Amino acid sequence: QVQLVESGGGLVQAGGSLRLSCAASGRTFSRYAMGWFRQAPGKEREFVGVISRGSGGSTLYADSVKGRFTISRDNDKNTVYLHMNGLKPEDTAVYYCAADPILHNLVVATTDKNSAPEVWGQGTLVTVSS
């Protein structure tokens, strides 16, 4: 099982950009699909996007971030990235990465209580000022 550590969060002005990283331990990183989620204060955790395992040829994004956020992975570095552009104050949240061998489990993680990703990171805070 991998362990995940997020980094790259911080304070940014609206319209700015940030790149979050999620570093995984272990030698099986490429076998995991990876997902990004976020939780704003007082709100439930929500899906941001996912990338398929292996070469990461497939991605899927929430409508709220589509066209602004991009997920990529570097299997040599055991790291998945969340590139965030055009940030808005409503993007303020703690951002979490998660890993599961099955992509579907990540896609439905916030809607199906019976689908829990195998591993969660501890989160990194992103604050977007207006």
Give, in order, the helices and strands: EEEEEEEEEHEE
* Strand content bin: over 45%
Largest sheet: 7 strands, mixed
Low-confidence stretches: none
How many individual β-strands? 11
Distance N terminus to C terminus?
40 Å
Rg, rounded, reads 14 Å
Mean pLDDT, to the nearest integer, reads 95
What can you tell me about this protein's structure?
The protein is built from 1 helix and 11 strands. It has one helix spanning 103-107; strands at residues 4-7, 10-13, 18-24, 33-39, 46-51, 59-61, 69-74, 79-84, 93-100, 119-120, 124-129. Strand 5 (46-51) and strand 6 (59-61) form a beta hairpin. The longest helix has 5 residues, at 103-107. The radius of gyration is 14 Å and the shape is globular. 34% of the residues are buried.
Quick structural summary:
The protein is mainly beta and 130 residues long.
What's the structural blueprint in terms of helices and strands?
Layout: E1 4-7, E2 10-13, E3 18-24, E4 33-39, E5 46-51, E6 59-61, E7 69-74, E8 79-84, E9 93-100, H1 103-107, E10 119-120, E11 124-129
Parallel strand pairs: 2-11
Antiparallel strand pairs: 1-3, 3-8, 4-5, 4-9, 5-6, 7-8, 9-10, 9-11
Q: Keywords, please?
A:
four-stranded antiparallel beta sheet, 45% strand, 11 strands, 130 residues, mainly beta
